[in-house]
Amino acid sequence: xxxxLTGGAGYIGSHTAVVLSQAGHEVxxxxxxxxxxxxxxxxxxxxxxxVLPCVEADVRDTALVAKTLQDYKIDAxxxxxxxxxxxxxxxxxIEYYANNVQGTISLLEAMKSANVKTLVFSSSxxxxxxxxxxxxxxxxxxxxTNAYGRSKLHIEEMLKDIAISNSEWxxxxxxxxxxxxxxxxxxxxxxxxxLPNNLMPCxxxxxxxxxxxxxxxxxDYPTIDGTGVRDYIHVMDLADGHLAAxxxxxxxxxxxxxxxxxxxxxxxxxxxxxxxxVSGQEIIFQIEGRRNGDIASCYAKVDKARNLLGWQAKxxxxxxxxxxxxxxxxSNKA
Length: 334
Ligand code: NAD
Ligand code: UDP
What we know:
This protein is of the alpha/beta class.
């Protein structure tokens, strides 16, 4: 298939590009590089031994997106492009709705005009809000506590309406849990502009001495050791999940949402000790107060992904941490 990856130069998009291309798909990237570097293109070329076409554009440029869909005879789109920092979304809701919601509307208009009706959308476990039960299945009520989460909710609901309006649409929303790690080459990984907020990149910064210590946001949660528990998933497993989702959605009309996680929770202290083990570095930490808006535990029920997509995660915490460490060392030198 010919597949357009909006936000394809970003963290998850670049890893998915590798997996799709190696599976024989023709991959085209579209990105405005607001949160990624152009150097990722050369790195993808090194991994794949081929150049992936990349269109530098904003998804809100409907005409250019439509032209790209036509020029490359695109069969399906994976829509990664969007802003994703929860804290920033609270300060800049207009930017978040403009980029995420308006960006998706623009993409859908372009897809409609180019008659491309197969879409994989990057959603998030954040649409479950504060978990009412664990593990979280896809029937768990959805809600949002910040502008980022609400933008994902709005998009999911919008996509549902579009699938109802015309039965030709084939849409799958993948609700990612906590993507971490990097490609085994160490050539691509999570490379945000600015300082990281998420746990794994913060630990990596401590391991290489960029941060003096890790702040642990709370050790008084009702969890196994008092620290927050999340369902961390290796980004290469996540990339494989997109391959499986494409194979499914191309043959299934309508709208569906599927969790993409491992089904297991790990605490902050679990991640720290695994990172220390694989890196040989001490991760100095300090206990701080709880972070605003954080929840105690969140992990997925993953039966739907297994049954519908025939996909399940393969990599364990050690692989997640060791690939992050390799990437951190590479990007530190590069
Ligand atoms: P990322 O920031 O690394 O990648 C997003 C890419 O989209 C970047 O390359 C950025 O330059 C590009 N982009 C942003 N706005 C754009 C626009 N208007 N036009 C064109 N390009 C644009 O983020 P990621 O971690 O790869 O996340 C990809 C998607 O997955 C996002 O939609 C995000 O909300 C979702 N998601 C991510 C996580 C996570 O923890 N990483 C978890 C759940 C869901
Ligand atoms: N966390 C932490 N210190 C950090 C970053 C995160 O203790 O510097 C904790 C956070 O409180 C949560 C877990 O690590 O319990 C995962 O946080 P992350 O931001 O990576 O993911 P999210 O909370 O969005 O699921």
